[in-house]
TrEMBL record:
PANTHER family: MALIGNANT FIBROUS HISTIOCYTOMA-AMPLIFIED SEQUENCE 1 HOMOLOG, PTHR48051. GO terms for cellular component: cytoplasm. One of its GO terms (molecular function) is nucleotide binding. It comes from Chloebia gouldiae. This is Roc domain-containing protein. The lineage of its organism: Eukaryota, Metazoa, Chordata, Craniata, Vertebrata. SMART domains: LRR_SD22, LRR_TYP. It comes from the Eukaryota. Residues 20-31 have a biased composition (Basic and acidic residues).
């Protein structure tokens, strides 16, 4: 058999050197100090036993006979009971997480010294009374990921000691009252249950420091209040005491779908209660937002433009807990794969990745342009394909799970397995175990937008759905009257004569304006800010506290924000650039020649200099009659201060500041793992790269010099696919680390310490991956560096992927034998160095043996965590 590239022989010398090192390490144990250490270690071992991941079904007798045992770790086994555990009466810590318990192991009541008990990730439904009354020293209790809907009353007996309690991911519908007796509780996790209400008493004491309740259909206090933390919840309850809570029924409704589907037409017709055809010339640019009342529900309509260029901004605005109206032009729809993907599949796929628990109502338009039978056929076809698509996704996930479970060393894949299990439950259809775990696609409604009866029918159907509490448990929010008063005051300020129509206002000025309102005069600023945060979370205003340049700006009209985005993220930007008037050029100290240069650089490199951006923005604002906001959003001085626009675009990774248009600043300080790194703020004009506008060029492959068979080579696979815009955002993130880089539409070359790393995007159905390649080091010492670089980029990919909760990414190394289809799956990268410790890996398919360095990062402790902090450092 022919040997593959990079076989064991390639690492001959390196392997021998390592063996030497291991021997040297062994000798050290024999010195006297080492012997004392060993004795101490042995003693500790008698008190602490770790039997995690052993596939145990019963407790080993040897363990039960050791009555001095203080800590027993049985994490990730197959235990259903632990008969005999009561003998271990000195036990202080008992870990039984990720086993197969259905019944609570009551023998635990004898372990009166217990301080830490972990029973998370089991199947426990009921905890009997009479266990916790014996555990008065218990400080730390994990019961998350079970099937619990109540806690025993005697948990109160741990009131003097319990500091940490986790009951997240269970089935609690009402708040477990015994928790209120836990006077010393500091950290409480109750996420992902079915709670509607939290008791005021929980927040009355001062002990609680950390509280998490996301993923509950909370009405009182609403999720958007809880997201503000304990102090905001306390403020909320103290306001509720002053006046009766009012019910607010509000639904964020997002209109999505391909270009010219009829989104704006439906949106406007629903608002006006009659057919309101939108002329083609009035296409939506960016997003339009409007508010509208149906019965006692307030609908906040978000109408998204269908052109792909704008999709880059969609991820900012597509948020969970909304009704999504997916508009499909039935006249354009053909019963084939291609149109399904373009008009329907693309949108559902993106929603299932970004907001896996969304409710989607497909609406077919242009019925008047179709035959009656055609409408029925197309409706059936769309629904059947959606069902098949979701089924395929589910079976893919099941397949990934099976693969991990069947792997030789499942313990290396626990994190990936858990994440997949979580996603699998999200893609099931309604009425699942957890209220939030559905991606519900409702039946398609076919309408003729020219007929007002169809509009009325659609309105009735929408109302019926939003009244369904199973579908929309969070529509109702209980609010203290002051919340509504602040909202009303803001609307008044926004509409006042004094207010410029861009609706941007300085935070301090807004707060003082609010204090002038008669009901709000006595409110303190902290409470007012809390309410502004709430209004930001429900999408009524925008206040990005987390962006430094925008922390003191409140956007009272969120649409203006989109106006800002669309100045630079839009259709036909080149034509806009070409049409900048001579007056504007002169105003920016530029010439017609400069303009030609800008157009050339933009077309070839997707870059604009600061001066070009200023001229472009000025040109567009003038043509829209909004000249007044130019300085506000671009900053006052042409070459300094970058203004609000760039802060926004950079925050959402839509553009990247670069220092040189040629070789992209080859002198820049680079990021080298392990060494301090800072961005260079060199002189000269800034250029901005807009990756959305990149074209395919040969430049990257020229600098890379073509793939070599012996390259180190890995792939990050994406399921169901690489989200639109993902690669461009990765590019912005990665290039801001590695300031020497070359980029093109689907490829990017990063350089670190003079070594190149290539990233290539391949997005095909059922075969979507990012390929990462670096040259095989010529010396053994070079492997560490090469893998550090690769791992750092993988971690940036994983970090970015977290923004798509329904996305699964897994990293594999293809077998190095040419033609062998096998791949080596990467273990979880949890920062503990869970990489390979073996020297040799054998391919299960072709049987070739390879030096492990050629396939996976070696398990040098600390390296992955170092890379992790680097990847996350930029997040700041
Ligand atoms: N005959 C007929 N025309 C419709 C119907 N619905 C929409 N239209 C027309 O289709 C065209 C596109 O409608 P829009 O509402 O602008 O579509 P959109 O989805 O908002 O399009 P973008 O703004 O490009 O994203 C307009 O000219 C509408 O008048 C329908 O049911 N029947």
């Amino acid at each position: 058999m022919e040997r593959g590239w990079g076989s064991l022989a390639e690492l001959g010398e390196a392997g021998a050197a390592q063996e030497e090192e291991t021997k040297g390490g062994g000798e050290r144990l024999e010195d006297p100090a080492g012997a004392t250490l060993q004795g101490q270690e042995q003693e500790d071992r008698l008190r602490e036993v770790n039997l995690s991941t052993q596939r145990l079904r019963v407790l080993p007798l040897a363990v039960l006979s050791n009555s001095t045992l203080e800590s027993l770790d049985l994490d990730r086994n197959k235990l259903r009971r632990i008969t005999g555990i009561s003998k271990l009466c000195n036990l202080k810590s008992l870990i039984l997480s990720k086993n197969e318990f259905v019944d609570f192991p009551s023998e635990i009541q004898s372990l009166v010294c217990l301080e830490r008990l972990e029973l998370n990730q089991n199947q426990i439904r009921i905890i009997p009374e009479g266990v916790f009354s014996h555990l008065s020293r218990l400080k730390h209790l994990r019961l998350n990921n079970n099937r619990l809907c109540a806690l025993p009353r005697d948990l109160a007996a741990c009131g003097g000691s319990l500091q940490y309690l986790n009951i997240s991911n269970n089935l609690f519908r009402t708040f477990p009252q015994p928790v209120l007796q836990l006077a010393r509780l500091q950290e409480f996790h109750v996420q992902n249950n079915a709670l509607r209400q939290l008791p005021r008493e929980l927040f009355q004491g001062q002990s609680l420091k950390m509280f998490k309740a996301g993923g509950n259909p909370l009405r009182e206090p609403p999720t958007e209040v809880c997201a503000g933390g304990i102090q905001q919840i306390r403020n909320y309850f103290s306001q509720l005491q002053h006046g009766l809570g009012q019910e607010d029924k509000r639904v964020k409704t997002m209109f999505l779908g391909a270009s010219l589907a009829g989104k704006s037409t439906i949106c406007r017709s629903l608002k006006q209660g009659q057919s309101k055809l939108v002329p083609k010339e009035e296409r939506t640019v960016g997003i339009e937002i409007s508010e509208f009342q149906m019965e006692d529900f307030t609908f906040l309509f978000w109408d998204f433009a269908g052109q792909l260029e704008y999709y880059m901004t969609h991820h900012v605005f597509i948020t969970p807990q909304a009704l999504v109206i997916l508009v499909i032009n039935l006249h354009m729809y053909q019963t084939n794969d291609k149109t399904f993907k373009e008009l329907v599949g693309f949108w559902i796929n993106n929603l299932s990745m970004r907001v896996p628990n969304s409710v989607v109502l497909p609406v077919g338009t242009h019925v008047d342009c179709c035959q009656e039978q055609e409408v029925a056929e197309k409706t059936r076809d769309i629904m059947a394909r959606i069902t098949a698509m979701l089924a395929e996704r589910k079976s893919n996930l099941a397949h990934f799970i099976d693969n991990l479970e069947g792997s030789e060393e499942p313990k290396f894949y626990v994190d990936q397995w858990e994440r997949l299990k979580e996603m699998e439950s999200c893609t099931l259809t309604a009425k699942n175990l957890f209220w939030m775990c559905f991606c519900q696609i409702l039946n398609l409604v076919a309408v003729n937008c020219t007929d007002h009866r169809d509009i009325r029918k659609l309105k009735t159907i929408i109302l019926k759905h939003v009244k369904n509490e199973e579908l929309f448990p969070e529509v109702v929010r209980v609010l203290p009257p002051v919340y509504r008063q602040v909202e009303a005051a803001i609307v008044e300020i926004a509409q006042s004569e004094e207010m410029a129509d861009h609706g941007m206002m300085d935070l301090q000025y807004l707060l003082s304006k609010l204090s002038q309102h008669k009901h709000l005069a006595s409110l303190d600023r902290e409470l007012l800010q809390d309410i502004l945060r709430y209004l930001h979370r429900i999408g009524l205003i925008v206040w990005y506290e987390e962006i430094k340049h925008l922390e003191s700006t409140v956007f009272l009209q969120p649409t203006f924000l989109i106006t800002m985005f669309k100045l630079l993220v839009r259709h036909h930007l080149v034509q806009q650039l070409e049409s900048i008037s001579v007056e504007t050029l002169i105003g920016e100290h530029a010439t017609i020649r400069d303009r030609a240069n800008w157009v050339w650089t933009f077309k070839s490199k997707a870059m604009l200099c600061h001066q070009a951006v200023r001229a472009l923005v000025k040109h567009q604002l003038c043509s829209e009659g909004r000249w007044d906001v130019f300085e506000e959003i671009m900053g006052h001085r042409p070459h300094r201060g970058r203004g609000k626009l760039f802060s926004l675009l950079e925050h959402f990774e839509l553009c990247l500041e670069v220092k040189h248009t040629e070789a992209l600043n080859p002198q820049a300080r680079e990021f080298v793992p392990g060494k301090p790194w800072e961005t260079t703020r060199s002189q000269g004009e800034s250029w901005y790269l807009f990756p959305t506008y990149l074209n395919q060029t040969e430049e990257v492959s020229e600098f890379w010099g073509g793939d070599h068979a012996e390259d180190l080579h890995i792939r990050a696979y994406f399921s169901p696919e690489i989200p639109e815009g993902f690669f461009q955002r990765l590019l912005v993130k990665a290039c801001s680390f590695y300031s020497t880089h070359w980029v093109a539409k689907v490829t990017c070359l990063l350089v670190c310490n003079g070594k190149p790393l290539l990233i290539k995007e391949n997005n095909q159905r059922a075969y979507s991956y990012l390929e990462l390649r670096s040259r095989k080091p010529s010396e053994r010492t070079g492997f560490q560096f090469a893998w550090d670089f690769l791992v750092a980029v993988v971690l940036i990919i994983q970090k970015l992927a977290e923004e798509w909760p329904g996305l699964h990414v897994c990293v594999k190394t293809p077998c190095r034998t040419s033609g062998c289809p096998a791949e080596f799956l990467w273990p979880d990268m949890d920062g503990t160095g869970a990489t390979t410790k073996e020297d040799v890996k054998t391919c299960g398919t072709c049987g070739h043996r390879f030096g492990a360095e050629l396939l996976l990062p070696k398990g040098e402790p600390g390296v992955p965590s170092l890379c992790r902090s680097c990847a996350q450092g930029k997040e700041g």
